[in-house]
Write a structure and sequence with these properties.
Layout: H1 3-19, E1 26-28, E2 31-38, H2 47-61, E3 66-71, H3 82-88, E4 93-96, H4 120-129, H5 132-142, E5 145-152, E6 159-161, E7 175-177, H6 180-187, E8 192-194, H7 201-207, E9 212-213, H8 218-224, E10 232-234, E11 244-250, H9 251-256, H10 259-293, E12 297-299, H11 303-318, H12 324-359
Parallel strand pairs: 2-3, 2-4, 7-8, 7-9, 10-12
Antiparallel strand pairs: 1-2, 4-11, 5-11, 6-9, 6-10
């Protein structure tokens, strides 16, 4: 048995053992309260909003019969401890970015973003209609979980830098915050990649512990205040072209709910996915203009850097293909992405180019 299989088997066994010691859910007059932990600091623009939106929707749709007690990062467990908290039964559910769990299984990256992967619409197409959710279920069952997409940031920016990036060599020794497989790809270009929770990024950048960071996009980045530290901003990145967020429940807890309440969680997650995406996209344009008016210098990576991103990303994805579930997930994602992209390019892509020409 290889190490990954051992870890997976151990995780499943641990989850099964934990199910016998799960804390009894809180009941009052027939109502039930579930504790949701998140990877987000309270108030982080967009991402915390998505978690709160789901919690509020579940409570409203059940008329208070099922209440979600939301705990932001650090209020019950740390941001990167929420996966273990839910698998062990310390908490009932989490809201977060699944690519934080690639050390548990690399296939978790696909449910947030992989480099040169899916846009937000392509992710939704795959997840809801082309096998993505079924593969997510298969992965989560290994760890005793039940998950759904529960938010999306849209395409994320390339990030904030103290100096311009003119060639792939400029990443050598650069201390940069980037999670997931995108961060692993950046590491292949010589960067010293850091994986920090969102609530810790500003201080790390301000203190000089980081030379640069990606976060989300203009609205969330402006809210975080990165423009106060550096004003070189790359607006297009390779790493998260449509980053999904997940709401995930301990499987024993989920199975203990009534079918109606299970469906409420599913519906609340799906509605939040679109609500969250619209929130980011509706705010990004005006936020970008405000950043530019404040002196932020918008940049694009040169083609040589994009080429290096592409080579490094392919290497990172290829090295995980020995895992059967990762391989099946990647193949499913690629097939769906190519099918969706061909039509979106031929229809919406052509229309938008002509619209901009005619109206511009």
């Amino acid at each position: 048995m290889d190490r990954r299989s051992f870890l997976r088997t151990s995780a499943l066994g641990g989850a099964a053992a934990a199910s016998t010691t799960l804390a009894a859910p809180a009941y009052a007059q027939g109502n039930r309260t579930l504790t949701m932990v998140t990877t987000w600091g309270r108030g982080l623009a967009g991402v915390h909003d998505a978690a709160q939106h789901i919690a509020d929707s579940i409570t409203a749709m059940t008329d208070g019969q099922l209440t979600i007690d939301l705990k932001a990062a650090g209020e019950l467990v740390g941001a990167f401890e929420v996966f273990d908290a839910v698998t062990s039964g310390q908490a009932d559910m989490y809201h977060g970015a699944d690519y934080y769990w690639v050390n548990q299984h690399p296939a978790y990256a696909f449910y947030t973003a992989v480099p040169f992967g899916m846009t937000a619409q392509e992710l939704a197409n795959w997840y809801y209609h082309m096998g993505g959710h079924e593969l997510h279920n298969e992965l989560n069952e290994i760890f005793g979980l039940k998950g759904f997409l529960g938010g999306n940031t849209g395409a994320q920016a390339g990030g904030w830098f103290r100096s311009e990036i003119n060639s792939p060599e400029d990443f050598q020794g650069l201390r940069f915050r980037m999670p997931g497989l995108g961060g692993q790809a950046l590491g292949r270009l010589g960067a010293s990649v850091q994986n920090l929770p969102g609530g810790e990024v500003y201080q790390a950048l301000a203190s000089g512990a980081l030379d640069g960071t990606e976060w989300i996009g203009p609205w969330a980045d402006q809210s975080a205040g990165f423009q106060e530290i550096t004003q070189i901003y790359y607006t297009a990145g390779f790493h998260e072209p449509g980053a999904g967020l997940s709401v995930t429940t301990n499987l024993d807890v989920f199975n203990s709910l009534s079918p109606a309440h299970q469906k409420v969680i599913e519906i609340a997650a799906a509605e939040a996915h679109q609500w969250s995406l619209s929130q980011f996209l509706s705010n990004n344009g005006s936020a970008l203009q405000q950043l530019i008016s404040g002196g932020v210098q918008v940049r694009e990576f040169p083609d040589s850097v994009w080429d290096a991103f592409g080579t490094a990303s392919a290497e990172v994805l290829d090295e995980n293909m020995s895992d059967p579930l990762f391989a099946r997930t990647r193949e499913s994602m690629m097939s769906s992405m190519m099918a969706s992209s061909s039509w979106l390019t031929a229809s919406e892509g052509t229309y938008r180019a002509q619209r901009d020409r005619v109206l511009g």
